[in-house]
Amino acid sequence: MTRADTRKIKLIGLDLDGTLLNGKKQITDRSKEAMKKAIEKGVFIVPATGRPLNGVPREVLEFPGIKYVLTVNGARITDIKQNKILYEVLTPMETVWKIKEIFDRYDTMQEVYFDGVGYAREDLLRKITEYESRPGMAEYITATRVRVKSIEEKLREMNRPVDKVQAFFKREEEKQKAWEELKMIPHLEVTTAGKRNIEVSREGVNKGAGLLKLGEMLGIKRDEIMACGDEINDLVMLREIGFAVAMGNSPDIVKAAADYITETNEEDGVAKAIERFVLK
Asked: Where do the coiled-coil regions begin and end (predicted)?
C-alpha cells in the first residue's frame, strides 16, 4: 500500500517537459482523458513548470478546468482565468548582476525572465543547438523567446527584480564550475533541468513551496497534494508535497525521492499515475 492509497488527492502538480508533455511537446489523448476525469471529480490540475507563462503551451493553458499555473519553478502562481498573479517571489537586480558575472565567464546562452516572458540574445538563438542538444527543447526555446541584442541592455532597461535567470552552457564541465561558484552566493536557489543548463532564482523558490502555497490558498493540505516530475528542478517538489510520483525517464536521484515510479512520458506515465491514485 502506498501513501496515496490512504488519502484523498485534491490537487495534482504536473511538471511539463519530460512529464506531462511527450517528446513532441504534446499531451497524449490518454493523459487528456485522465486529467479531464480528475477535474470532473473536483481535483485541481496545476501545471508546475520552469517555463515562463508565455512558454506554456496553449493546449495546457486552454485545457478545460485548468485555472492555476505555477511557472518559473515556483516563483509565480497565476490565476489564468482572471489573469491575476496570486503569488510571486522575484530575484533582486543586484543579485542578478552577480549571477550574470559568473555566467559571463563561460560560453553560455543566457536568458532573463520578466513578467512571464523570457528574453535571449537573437544571435545565440540562431545557434541554439550548440547549447541545447534536445531537438524538442531547442525548438520550444526558439519559438517562445523574445529576441534582444543584449541581455545586459535588457536588464538595464527593465531595472527591476526578475522572475528567473537561466543559462545554457556549450560545455558540461563549464556548467559544473559555474554551479560551484553560484553556490557561494547567499540567498539563491540553484537548480537544473538538463545536462547543460542552470536555472537561478531567489532562495526558497521551488515548485514544492509553490504548490504548498497554492494549497494553503485553496484550503488543501500537504497530504492531499500529489505531484509528478522527472528532473532535478522537480526534486524539492517531490520531497515536499504529500505524494510524489517520478517518471520512468527520471534520473535515479529523482526516482529515489518518489513514493511511486510511473512509466515514462512516452508511455502515458502521468495518465497511469492519475488513473491509479486519483480515479480508482
From this structure: none
